[in-house]
Design brief:
12 strands; 6-stranded parallel beta sheet; 3 domains; Rossmann fold; alpha/beta; 335 residues; DNA-binding; homodimer; 434 Repressor (Amino-terminal Domain); 15% strand
DNA sequence: GCTACTGTCGAGAACGTTTACGTAATTTTT
DNA sequence: AAAAATTACGTAAACGTTCTCGACAGTAGC
């Protein structure tokens, strides 16, 4: 246990009280600028760093923000984290990372084991179907901002990409390319994001008077393996789809792998489109058409909103929907 | 400020002292098992969660481990984090994330602004050339374990993949495939990892009596863009290389993109090999031969070592080198 | 010369825990 | 039956801050 420099050391060296040192270090009021100078100088000389535990205890709040999300090993979430970290760092907040592995029990376990009062707030992308464990947090006055996989019911700020319009654009793009039998590899049921993308897909079909084939909609997890397996199922139908819209790039890439196994020409025979703009989508061949999500922006804005909730007394919840943009590549060109 | 349940509430409800409650909650000694039962029951009933700031203050230590690394948006680091998080979570430790953006000043800034005594230890992959800011941490008795980009001089535990043998294997594989003019897209100078992979490359050439061409070794950053730019330079040489060994997959992928621009057949005309086994390496076409790093294992073992340092009084530093394995794909097959 | 400020500072309680020490009650030893 | 040891618990200090009260100058107003 290294004996750290404390406020007392500064006080003793300067022959003043700890109260004055504390004020000099933080406020500017009620302290002579000369003594303030001396304190700051001494603090620097001794390389004083405030003890965050003591500060947290005394003030009843900290500079920690907790991030709770399913994974960190994918482009979208890791980029969101980078965005969050960018603003958190610049404002002097530290981030604490909690990974749920996309398992609801783990998510609940994490929130229940947490001493939530030692957090300034939480940024979360939930994999749960119920949000009770989060309302327990907001009930105690700790702010939560959701991103991506948001709670449809809770009255908090939420930040997300435009899932509905992105899916609509994706589907409409396929239609405009001449595909008519469009399947959708959807996400797990009950997640708002899944439903919005599904709705965008359905509405685009309806707008263009294309029939809605229930067999062409398969719900499963978000992984590449799910996309691959689901596509194998789609290919068993007597009347195959001629295009596949993946709820995300990984499922779309899984679909492409399955198609390649069957020697089906991607684009020409069956079009494929994804969602995310994972760097891999540009590298795979044929390159994958996709809908880009502004992941970094989402992280940045989520964190900014959370900090506003933390610092402003009354700041009403906001819902921010960031535009998604279509990126056309090779996997949806017909000729 | 939500009034949280404290140890005092339990004590008052049970008509006992806070000391007894504290002991009942933590130790088993010096407390009757009946009262202990009652305390645990009451704690559960009140949904008591210990205040980590108070505990940290009183005990002079915490359960926070800090992770300091260059990026989070790539396969390797995000997988390492997942490994770290796996063991940290199971042992009740929380992880605090610091991203340096691969900038030395930022790394130094982070360590200097930290109240390091509020951490149990640090897990770091450094982008710095000097390690003074880390020895300042270990000098205060806080443990640091390096992974991947380790300090060559500091006496701490270190965990890394076998960079030398991996690079040696990669180069030898190219030689065995019949490539003779092998270039190396190296990492930044001064980083131990860069030097080890470079040495493996050089030694493999030497073993097989191939000339070492200084023009075929280019040092630059770790990004895909660097790999692409460096390859453009390589292609201007009168006598081009017939194979390229990238210090990591991203640079190798950058090389592939450059080669594609020149309509050079990858594999047949110029072989390409990477290092990491980024998922993208399997998706790009032709698929990229690479040397796989056990990223998850590295995270897991790093964290385990750190926890041993934290919990055991005298636990001497260990250096763990995990084997790298060659994964042969299409980018290095000649015919 | 008296009151009323204003500016600067210190004393001390408080935040929620842990822990060294003391003590009373009980049990064991002799 | 007295002495010693053990068990179970409480008291209070400590951890490093913050913050509410004053205290005490000095200044200004009358």
């Amino acid at each position: 246990m290294a004996s750290m420099i404390t406020i007392k050391d500064i006080a003793r060296n300067l022959n003043i009280s700890v109260a004055t040192v504390s004020r000099a270090l933080r406020d500017t009021y009620d302290v002579n600028k000369e003594t303030r100078e001396k304190v700051l100088q001494m603090a620097k000389a001794l390389d004083y760093k405030p003890n965050v535990n003591a500060t947290g205890l005394a003030k009843g709040k900290t500079n920690n923000i907790g991030i709770i999300l399913p994974f960190v090993t994918n482009y979208y979430f890791s980029t969101v984290i980078t965005g969050i970290q960018e603003v958190a760092y610049s404002k002097g907040y530290n981030i604490m990372l909690f990974i749920t592995n996309d398992a609801e029990e783990r998510e609940i376990d994490i929130t229940h084991n947490l001493n939530i009062s030692s957090f300034a707030g939480f940024l979360v992308s939930s994999c749960a179907s119920s949000f009770k464990h989060f309302s327990e947090i907001t009930d105690k006055g700790i702010h939560v901002v959701f991103f991506d996989r948001v709670s449809p019911t809770m009255d908090t700020s939420k930040v997300m990409q435009d899932d509905y319009n992105g899916a609509f654009m994706a589907t409409e793009h396929l239609i405009q390319q001449g595909y008519t039998r469009i399947a959708h590899l959807a996400g797990p049921r009950g997640i708002a994001m899944t439903e919005k993308r599904l709705k965008g897909y359905q509405d685009a079909l309806e707008k263009h008077h294309l029939p809605l084939n229930e067999q062409f909609i398969i719900h499963s997890g978000f992984s590449q393996e799910c996309g691959e397996a689901d596509t194998q199922i789609l290919l068993t139908h007597k009347k195959r789809p001629d295009a596949i819209f993946g709820v995300n790039d990984r499922k779309a890439i899984g679909a492409m792998l399955a198609l390649k196994q069957h020697n089906i020409k991607i684009g020409k025979e069956i079009g494929v489109i994804g969602f995310t703009n994972d760097p891999a989508s540009a590298l795979i061949s044929p390159s994958l058409t996709t809908v880009a999500e502004p992941a970094f922006e989402i992280g940045k804005i989520s964190c900014e909103l959370l900090l506003k909730h933390i610092t402003k007394k009354r700041f009403p919840p906001e819902e921010v929907v960031l535009p998604s943009t279509l990126i056309v590549r090779e996997s949806t060109v017909r000729k």
